[in-house]
Amino acid sequence: MRKFWRDFWRDRRGNYALMTVLAMVPLMGGVAMAVDFSGMISEKQKVVNALDAANFATARRLVEGATDDQLRAYALDFFKANLNDVDPANTTLDVTLPSSTAGGGIVKLCASLVYKPYFLPAASMLIGKTSGDIDYSVCSQVRLKNTLEVAMVLDNSGSMSNNGTGSGQKRIDLLKQAAKQLVDTLASQAAMIKQIDKPVQFSLVPFAASVNVGASNDNASWIDAYGLSPIHNENFDWSTLNAADKYAQKIGGIWYKKGTGWAEQEGQMLTRFSLYRDMKVVTSHERIVGSKRVVCDKYRANHTCSDSHDEYDYTDTYGPFASWQGCVEVRPYPYNVNDAPASGGPNNTGTGVGDPATMFVPMFAPDEPGNHWYITQDPDEAAPKTYGAVNSWWNDDPSSTTGKTRQSNMAKYFQPRPINAPVLSKGAGPNYSCTTTPITPLTDVTNADGLAKIKAAIDLMAPNGNTNVPEGMAWGWRTVSSTEPFTEGRPETERGNDKVVIVLTDGENTYSTVSSDPAGNKSTYAGYGYTGVGYNGTAVTRLFGGTSSAIGQLNYSSSNYTAALNEQMATLCNNAKAANIMVMTVALDMSTTDAGDKSAMDALKTCSSDSRFRKDPTDPSKPAKLFWNATGATLSDNFKEIANELSNLRVVS
Q1: What is the CA radius of gyration of the chain?
Q2: How confident is the model at residue 443 (pLDDT cuts 50, 70, 90)?
Q3: Under a CB-based contact definition with an 8 Å cutoff, are residues 616 and 622 in contact?
Q4: Would the pLDDT of 137 be above 80?
Q5: Which region, left, alpha or beta, applies to residue 267 given φ > 0 means left and ψ of -120 to 50 means alpha?
Q6: Pairwise CA distance, residues 291 & 167, whole Å
Q7: DSSP for 423-453?
Q8: What average pLDDT does this structure show over 556-573?
Q9: 26 prior amide bond cis, ω within 30
Q10: What's the gap between Cα 335 and its chain centre?
Q11: Is 427 left (phi over 0), alpha (psi -120 to 50) or beta?
Q12: Per-residue pLDDT tens over the stretch 161-205
């Protein structure tokens, strides 16, 4: 090797040594530049990574309530700890926190780095400098997810009175505790949020066989007060009001009272609401003093009275029988599975604007065939026929001869209910299947009044009735919506806001069949009305609207009802998630070995959204589903996990 270099330097042919030296100058300069360029890029990327990590961590500490000084110190420590082999002495960090009075809810961190090249001036030439160090800066912004709207859609069906597995408490009581714990957790965090109005709001939707929207909404623009919806008169035959001086007439799609027999009520509308107002009950039956008269029952041959009885005149006092308690029927497909705002009031009739089917119809369970009662009944008269219907609560019109005509005859409602009529059992009457407390609209839980309101509503929940998960979920979606019927939700286009629906149920969807069915109803009355009554002139009930061929359109079995409700639920879930609603589902005390429970659990899991933060423990390549398989013993911990998921939503976007 030594000989090679000696010969190389002595060789004058072609002046190779000189040419080589000259060639090595740019070659070595290029190497130097490449080394420093690579080093500078590497350090810059490490600073960017450390900056982003510090920003996200600082945002979380801000939500937890740290002071401004604590946040700045925390950001600097976190930034330095994540610089890896970059010398912290060569960096500076500037922290801009959200103002308490102005700003857009942004945490901004800016870092400066002084890079010391290995080769000068070669590296400096990269940026046009002839000497010295290289400095640059980079910034990172995190917009705080300060607003959260959560609808708690909670099962209030009768089975919630059972004890929770692994617990000595009723499921409904365990649910109340867990729900209030969730609200408290998010409320305490929200109280620390700066500069944002109503950072966390909760609504409550108790559901069973139907949903109660609140009786105070009887005059709301989205309630069908005119009887225009195609389902409003589904179980009523107003044409049976056909006396010469007291009849019903349909004008412009609305039924009206016509004839002098109505007196001052002539011209008023005939609707479900008018029925609630018109039904009267005899509250007192008082004998008029001095009205006694003797009536002869049997005469002797000489025309003298042998047997007689006394008769009197009475004054009756009437009072209202019932009022609407706030439950509404399910809208016909597709409006039962979407958030379409209600339209189609009387001003829109016939104009092509709006659809009356979008309106919400108050529930009114018809009086089903049964006995009729009298103030005084002749003992020689044959006993009235007993039909044995589930919900017989009014005096049937004796002129009606069949179970179906007895049910649909409207004249009976305008005859006062006798004072001696049997006392109604719990849950009977026109509000049959309306068993839940009203919806509580979105409420700001960062103030004491709002927090107390939502927790008081949770405490009022009571188990009773069947399970209609899709209708509960539909109303949960409507409470976080920005459009009617509930408008407390922020605009769907607003950035930094999450709309969440949490659905909890302890069983599969149910709709009850009946053993005695004199009117051909095929089911008890609930949110979908009667399954034996066709919708809009067809034989197909609303429950089957929009379902697949797997659902027997004339199959009136409870299992087919459940299958139809499951399909409605699947469609609703897909629509809600497509509208950027985050869906969380909880199955409470369901068994994987029970076919019905297993099917319900699978449906709930499919319905749920994907987590933005957690991975599926069985397949880390996929996000975890926002579904919890809870028992009475684990429900509290499961709701803590839900709180943690919701807390994470509020720190970054």
Answers
A1: 37
A2: very high
A3: yes
A4: yes
A5: left
A6: 67
A7: PPPTT-STTTT--SPPPEEEEETTSHHHHHH
A8: 97
A9: no
A10: 15
A11: left
A12: 999 999 999 999 999 999 999 999 999 888 776 667 888 999 999
DSSP string, 163-195: BPTTSSSBHHHHHHHHHHHHHHHHHHHHTT--S
Give the model confidence (pLDDT) of 190-246 as tens digits. 877 666 788 899 999 999 999 999 999 999 999 999 999 999 999 999 999 999 999
As a whole number of angstroms, the distance between CA 262 and CA 274 comes to: 13
Coarse DSSP helix, strand, coil percentages of the chain, rounded to the nearest 5 percent: 35, 20, 45
**Model pLDDT for residues 280-328, shown as the tens digit of each residue:** 999 998 999 999 999 999 999 999 999 999 999 989 999 999 999 999 9
pLDDT at 499 over 80: yes
504 class by beta-carbon count within 10 Å (0-12 exposed, 13-18 middle, 19+ buried)? buried
Please tell me the distance from the alpha carbon of residue 11 to that of residue 8, in angstroms, as a whole number: 5
- If we measure between CA atoms, which residue out of 636, 590, 610, 492 comes closest to residue 159? 590
- Half-sphere exposure in the Cβ direction for 510 (13 Å, CA): 22
Work out the burial of residue 524: count CB atoms within 10 Å of its CB; fewer than 13 is exposed, 13-18 middle, 19 or more buried: buried
CA distances from 12 to 6, 8, 9, 23 (A): 12, 9, 8, 17
Taking a C-beta distance cutoff of 8 angstroms, is the pair 53, 82 a contact? Answer: yes
Indicate the length of the chain as a whole number: 653
Whether pTM exceeds 0.70: yes
152: β partners: 204, 502
Which helix (H) or strand (E) element contains residue 558?
helix 558-578
Question: In angstroms, rounded to a whole number, what is the distance separating the alpha carbons of residues 505 and 468?
Answer: 9
Contact in structure between 88 and 77 (CB atoms under 8 Å): no
